[in-house]
Specification:
3 domains; 24 helices; alpha/beta; Rossmann fold; 6-stranded parallel beta sheet
Length: 666
């Protein structure tokens, strides 16, 4: 007779066999980890998590993050079994070209995948962002008797996750902020690619996380469903501390010859071993991707329960709308992704006689729009006074104030980037985070993942060049502009003055399809007289003719950021020499490339091939715009410790040198 216990065990073993079959068919993947984790997945998807496969975007669903993304066949299997729009054929197409079941979970390919994971530690830190966003939403919208937002964030992480430095950063801030809505299960299988973890990793994880301020439990047997269930229930009751459940699992569980070995980690088990596994679990060794009707019915019933849960939530929200119509209206706008009417009403305008650092202009914009955009949240990695990212008149987000809009990420740039990604994935938050441009290097993996997912955190990078001055070589960015430009789906904007900075913020907030990086100066810059030249709103085109020549142009001077004012001064001197120069401000290559061929030809006529690009960074990439008849004033070495103006002059960023180079071209 089929009992609940027997069908549960068959279901768990079905996930194990689906995982090894998919990896074997693809001849690529990680079979052992899903085999060890199957009981954990079973408890999560059958009793612990609130979700609805028929509406994967339901706002109050629990979020699941597979930080150990190499174990993705575990997640794919449960998505299929519980009734998401995932077919058995999708599992068979694992890791194939254009398949929805990629080699690691990818956001947007399959319903139920909340975040792209793979680089270890990223998912762990993303979860902290998810948790922050939920807590902020709850503080803003929940009312007595109306817990509109109370979802949990569940994650499975691995030994590899805990070894990565980003995890320490994220765990530290999660404990400090008392994010009790985090429930992480640590897959303690003690195996990595090179062998046993004690080759490199013998720390006491329990004591480590207790020191971070986490609630920690230990489950000694990853196959003990009752113990797993109890530990998760205990974690659900813990509302103050984030929870870590350390579970001793066995990689490759069920494989007679490869269990608890590195051989089960990153390679198919092989046909002979798979046969032995299936025989052990009572499956037909001559069949692949076998799912019994009873198992499918059991898991589909578990998935169906989510329809009732969501229906109850919908009824609650209907009553909420009647009781709190203004809040409901605000939430509907927040969740729509649209900007409210008049959000830009108070944007500042700068006059030509001013001198303003673009970081200062950015701070003024932030505070001008903060009232109109209550879901604009962010801060800096311990640099808000330097990056001008404090929202004046608003409080800090903390363990005791979830409505705070100012975030103190601490000196944790890498975690900040990943946390911003998690916040952005909430879709009811526009997050921003700031640091110096040189420290983009610490954030690079998280920025890349934001671009892969096409989500929109706004990254603010100040102190953008050798103009930083005395801090010297280690703090002066050179290759970072090129590095950001090389990231697909990312828009980088380096405004030339305060008014372009205002326009840059407008472009960033209105942009869809990926992250935006704003590159800003520490040093003060002249404000370009917009009445004499043109309107800064043309920044949205990426490049525009800032100042036309007095006659048919002989040369184009093109630049970004703080170097543009040099071009305007050089244009005057060239005019005195009867040389006609067009000045093009080009704050964003990416926005320019979106323009029509007609517009591009207008700015850079094909017949006008004498072009000089000027930018205080690596010249790589500029050849596309200056042609083989042009030249570039850039930087091919590191900076110097000296006052910024002196370094600029030393490196050739002077009106005199711009004129000299332009004259040489013609």
């Amino acid at each position: 007779m089929t009992t609940k216990k027997s069908i549960e065990q068959e279901g768990i073993n079905t996930v194990r066999t689906l995982s090894i079959d998919a990896v074997q068919k693809a001849n690529s993947g990680h079979p052992g980890t899903p085999m060890g984790l199957a009981p954990i997945g079973h408890v999560l998807w059958t009793e612990s998590m609130n979700y609805n496969p028929q509406d994967p975007e339901w706002m109050n669903r629990d979020r699941f993050i597979l930080s150990a993304g190499h174990a993705c066949m575990l997640q794919y299997s449960f998505l299929y079994l519980t009734g998401y729009d995932v077919s058995l054929n999708d599992l068979k197409e694992f890791r194939q070209l254009h398949s929805r079941t990629a080699g690691h979970p990818e956001y947007g390919l399959l319903p139920g995948i909340e975040v792209t994971t793979g680089p270890l530690g990223q998912g762990f830190a993303n979860g902290v962002g998810f948790a922050i966003a939920e807590q902020n939403l709850a503080a803003r919208f929940n009312k007595p008797g109306f817990d509109i937002f109370n979802y949990k964030i569940y994650a499975i992480c691995s030994d590899g996750d805990l070894m990565e430095g980003i995890t320490s950063e994220a765990a530290s801030i999660a404990g400090h902020l008392q994010l009790g809505n985090l429930i992480y299960l640590y897959d303690d299988n003690q195996i990595t690619i090179e062998g046993r973890t004690d080759l490199t990793f013998n720390e006491d994880v329990v004591q480590r996380f207790e020191a971070y301020g986490w609630h920690v439990q230990v489950v000694g047997d990853g196959n003990d469903i009752e113990a797993l269930s109890l530990a998760i229930k205990n974690a659900q009751k813990e509302n103050i501390r984030p929870s870590l459940i350390k579970v001793r699992t066995h990689i490759g569980y069920g494989s007679p010859n490869k269990v608890d070995t590195a051989a089960a980690h990153g390679s198919p088990l092989g046909a002979d071993e798979i046969r032995l596994v299936k025989e052990k679990f009572g499956f037909d060794p001559d069949k692949s991707f076998e799912v019994s009707a009873e198992v499918l019915k059991y898991y589909r019933a578990a998935g169906k329960r989510g329809e009732k849960t969501e229906s109850e939530w919908n009824e609650l929200y209907k009553r909420y709308k009647k009781e709190y119509p203004e809040l409901a209206k605000a939430y509907n706008l927040t969740s729509s992704g649209k900007l409210p009417d008049g959000w830009d009403k108070n944007l500042p305008v700068y006059k030509g006689e001013e001198k303003v650092a673009t970081r200062k202009a950015s701070g003024k914009v932030l505070n001008a729009i903060a009232d109109k955009l209550p879901y604009l949240l962010g801060g800096a990695a311990d640099l808000s006074p330097s990056t001008d990212t404090d929202l004046k008149g608003y409080q800090s987000f903390s363990a005791t104030n979830r409505e705070g809009r100012i975030f103190h990420f601490g000196i944790r740039e890498h975690a900040m980037g990943a946390i911003l990604n998690g916040m952005a994935l909430n879709k009811c938050v526009i997050p921003f985070g700031a640091t110096f441009l040189i420290f983009y290097d610490y954030m690079r993996p998280a920025v890349r993942l934001a671009a892969i997912m096409k989500i929109k955190p706004i990254f603010i990078y100040t102190h953008d060049s050798i103009g930083l001055g005395e801090d010297g070589t280690t703090h002066q960015p050179v290759e970072q502009l090129f590095g950001l430009r090389s990231v697909p789906n990312l828009v980088m904007i380096r405004p030339a003055d305060a008014n372009e900075t205002v326009a840059a913020w407008r472009a960033a907030l209105e942009h869809i399809g990926g992250p935006v990086a704003l590159i800003l100066t520490r040093q003060e810059l002249p404000v370009i007289d917009q009445e004499k030249y043109t309107k800064a709103r043309e920044l949205e085109k990426g490049a525009y003719i800032l100042s036309e020549s007095h006659k048919t142009p002989q040369v184009i001077l093109v630049g970004t950021g703080s170097e543009v004012h040099l071009l305007l001064e050089a244009q005057k001197e060239l005019k005195a020499k009867n040389v006609a120069a067009r000045v093009v401000s080009m704050p964003s290559w990416e926005l320019f490339e979106k323009q029509s061929a007609i517009y591009k030809e207008k700015v850079f006529p094909k017949k006008l091939r004498k072009r000089l690009a000027v930018e205080a960074g690596s010249p790589l990439g500029w050849h596309k715009y200056v042609t083989d008849e042009g030249d570039i004033i850039g930087i091919n070495k590191f900076g110097e410790s000296a006052p910024g103006e002196e370094v600029f002059n030393e490196y050739g960023f002077s009106v005199k040198n711009v004129v000299k180079k332009a004259m040489a071209l013609i």
